[in-house]
Amino acid sequence: MHTTTLGSQGLVVSAEGLGCMGMSTTYGPSDEQEGLATLGRALDLGVTFFDTAEAYGPFMNEELVGKAFVGKRDRIVLATKVGFRYTEDGKLAMDDGKPRVTGDPTRVRKAVEGSLRRLRTDVIDLIYLHRIDPTTPIEVTIGALAGLVHDGKVRYIGLSEASATTIRKAHAVHPLTAVQMEYSLFEREAEHNGVLAAVRELGIGFVSYSPLGRGFLTGALKDLDNLHPTDFRRLDPRFQGENLRANLRLVERLTEIAEAKGVKPSQLAIAWTIQAGTVPIPGTRRIKYLEENVAAADIALTPDELAALEQAAPFGAAAGERYSPGMMATLGH
Asked: Would strands 11-14 and 3-6 be described as parallel, antiparallel, or unpaired?
């Protein structure tokens, strides 16, 4: 796989990364050995950019990623995230369905120390603030992360799900290398809220998470019958009732374009995010789907195909909010 420079600070990553969250949480029970095998195969295929977070599990996913790359640390770029609060028994702290976020410098530094330990490394290549804490000035939080860069514990800094205003404030304190947002043919808000414009102006890389629309854009998901009872998509607004039916009709249109090109819908969706100038991090637990996803990095879309995709999946085409109300309340600060 070819590589690309993420942002303008010098971080080189594979053109497509691997989102590791689903190997440990969110989509039902996980299998550690399967996760380790998939991570190893990704490295063999040329993927070097691996994305995790302390919140995934919580903590379990960082431990899995750390275990997978013992003795291989110099071959990978590790990205993780901090910025949520946890209960004493290690669960995500919630207030009326809304996760509690924190940008408090002391908590952030402590969280990074925990991530370093679980990832079995002396330095994190890219640390994101997972969500923005509106009660702590972003300049204060970025100042703490910049201190960790100075101490050699972090190489580069990023933000996840931040507003254009917050991105500009943070970048003025310490250069940001990446901003991570949900971005796909299903979710194009970043094109319209100033975020993509801001990162391009400032020379910040853009990392697209959920480039497959939480599985919709694979074309394989037709209903919820085969989802595990603990799969969070059973509560996701885009998978409910008429939203589900409307979104499946959208997927049908995208599948037709993919079939005309001779590729899978998932590959078409990933290639679109790459051609848009972003680094996607599709997640999967299984080697079969990993190999399909990685092959998308070599697919080039013609102007006519891009125009057809624009017509089939314009901004706002997906029906329903992308998260529950509590999670939506953590976005865009």
From this structure: antiparallel
Number of domains in the chain: 1
Q: Which residues pair with 86 in a beta bridge?
A: 92
Contact of 282 with 267, CB cutoff 8 Å: no
Average pLDDT over residues 274-282: 98
d(Cα 295, Cα 62) in Å, to the nearest integer?
26
54 closest CA partner among 28, 83, 18: 83
pLDDT digits (tens, 9 = 90+) for 177-188: 999 999 999 999
Q: Minimal CA–CA distance to 211: which of 182, 243, 190?
A: 182
pLDDT tens readout for residues 108-119: 999 999 999 999
Q: What does the chain come to in residues? A: 333
User: In the chain, where does DSSP find H-type helix?
Assistant: 32-44, 60-68, 105-119, 138-150, 164-173, 195-202, 241-261, 265-275, 287-295, 303-312, 325-328
Residue 56 annotated as catalytic: yes
Domain assignment present for residue 30? The answer is: yes
Q: Which helix (H) or strand (E) holds 13?
A: strand 11-14
Given this model, what pLDDT does residue 225 score?
Answer: 86
Question: What is the CB neighbour count within 10 angstroms for residue 116?
Answer: 21
CA distance 144 to 119: 20
> Residue 36 maps to which CATH number?
3.20.20.100
Write the pLDDT tens digit of every residue in 193-235.
999 999 999 999 999 999 999 999 999 988 888 888 888 899 8
Boundaries of domain holding 278: 3-214+268-301
Q: What's the CA gap between 51 and 64, in Å, rounded?
A: 12
Q: Quote the pTM value.
A: 0.97
Residue 85 identity: R
Query: Is 231 part of a structural domain of the chain?
Result: no
Q: Residue for token digits 């507003």?
A: 163
User: Which single residue is written with the structure tokens 């509690």?
Assistant: 100
